[in-house]
Amino acid sequence: MSLASGSRTRRKIPEELTTTEELTTTEELTTTKELTTPEELSAPATGTSSAATEESAAVLPAALSRPRLPRPPALPRILRAALTGATKSAAIVALLLVWELAPRFGLVDRTFLPPFSEVAQAWWELVANGQLADNAQASLVRSFSGFGIAVAVSVPLGLLIGWYRPVADLLNPLLQVFLNTAALALLPVFVLLLGIGETSKISIVVYACAWPILFNTISAVRTVDPTLLRLAKSMDLSAPRLFQKVILPASVPTVFTGIRLAGAVSIVVLVAAEMIGAKAGLGYLINASQYNFAIPQMYAGIVTISVIGVAFNQLLVAVEKRLSSWRVPATS
Fold first, then answer.
1. Domain count, the chain
2. What's the pLDDT score for residue 123?
3. For position 126, what pLDDT does the model report?
4. Neighbours of 151 (CB within 10 A)
5. Predicted local distance difference test score (pLDDT) of residue 327
6. In order along the chain (332 residues), what is the average pLDDT of each group of 10 residues?
7. Residue 329 lies in a domain
8. pLDDT at 151
9. Distances (CA, A) of 242 to 154, 221, 248
10. 326 with 262: CB under 8 angstroms?
11. What's the rounded Cα separation, in Å, for the pair 317 and 323?
C-alpha cells in the first residue's frame, strides 16, 4: 500500500509542476498585456526605433500641413471661351455691321441692298406666316434625299475602285468625263428626261454630290500610310481584315472631306434647280421674291440658305470627329 501510494505521489508531482508552469506562463502573458498599454505603445522607444518614430512623427504633420495646389478658377476659363467665341464671330459681326451701315449712309442703294435690320424683320415675317418653314422643309427633303443617295452609292464604289486596281483602270476615263461636266450644265437634260417634278431635282443633287465623295474616297484608299499596311501584313492579316482594320479607319478623314464638300454642293445645286419649274423651296422663294421686287424677302431666303449650310457642315464635322476619335491631335 505504501509503495503504491508513493508511486501515485510521484506521478502527481510532474502534473503539479506542469500546472504550475502553465499558470506562471499565463500570468506572465497577462501581466505583459496589462503593462503594454496604448500609452506605452505610443511612447517612443530607445535607440533606432526612437529615431524612426520621431522622424515619422515629424514627417506626418508636415505632410498634413502641406498646402494643396489651388485649382484654376472657373472665371478665367469662361473668359477664355468667350474670347475664343468672339474671335471666331468677329468677321461675321463686321460683315453684318457693314451691311447695316452701308445702305443707311448712302454707300449703296438701299432699294437693292436694304439694311440688315429690314432683312431680319422680313425674315421674321416669313417665319410668322409659315412661308419660310414650308419652303425650307421642301428644300431640305430634296437636298438630304439626294445627298444620302450619293453617299450610299459613292462611298462603296470609291472603296471598290480604290482597292482594286483593274476596276480603277477600267472606270477612270469615264469618271473623268463626268467629273469635268458641270451639274448645272446638265440641268436641262435632267428636266427633259425626268420632268420638272421631284425626281429631276433629287437626281441633279445626286449627280452633283457623287463626284466629290467618289474621288475623295478613291484618294483615301490609295494614300493609306504604307507603314500601316506593312505592319498589318506582318501580322498575317487576311485581306478582309486588313481592309476592315486598316484601310477603313485610315480613310475616314479624307472621305469626310468629300462628304462635307458634297453637303455644300447639295444645297447650292438644289437652289438653282428649284428656280426652274418648282412650286416650293428656298430657291423658289428667292426667285419669286425677285420677280415681285420683295427684296428683303429675297435676302431673307439667301440668309436662311447660308445658315442651313453652316449648320449642316458643323453636323458633318461632329460626325467626323466621332468616327475618327482614334486620331492623335496634331497639337500633341
1. 1
2. 93
3. 92
4. 20
5. 62
6. 42 41 43 42 43 46 51 67 77 90 89 91 92 91 92 91 84 85 86 85 91 91 82 78 81 88 89 82 90 91 91 88 66 45
7. no
8. 93
9. 21, 12, 9
10. no
11. 10
CA distances from 129 to 108, 140, 248, 318 (A): 30, 19, 47, 33
d(CA 148, CA 137): 16
Other CB atoms within 10 A of residue 108 CB: 13
Instruction: Residue 192: give the domain boundaries.
Output: 116-323
CB-based contact 280:138 (threshold 8 Å): yes
Q: Which residues contact 104 (CB under 8 A, 6 or more apart)?
A: 110, 115
Q: Residue 98 falls within a domain, yes or no?
A: no
Count of helix runs (H) and strand runs (E) in the chain: 14, 0
DSSP annotation of 279 = S
Taking the C-alpha atoms of residue 37 and residue 35, their distance in angstroms, rounded to an integer, is 6
- CA separation for the pair 271, 104 (Å, rounded): 30
Output the pLDDT for position 67: 54
Residue entry with cell 441692298: 113
**Is residue 238 domain-resident?**
yes
Domain assignment present for 93: no
Strand runs labelled E in 142-201: none
Percentages helix, strand, coil for the chain, rounded to the nearest 5?
80, 0, 20
Read off the pTM. 0.68
CATH number, domain with residue 165: 1.10.3720.10
What distance lies between CA 196 and its chain's CA centroid?
Answer: 39
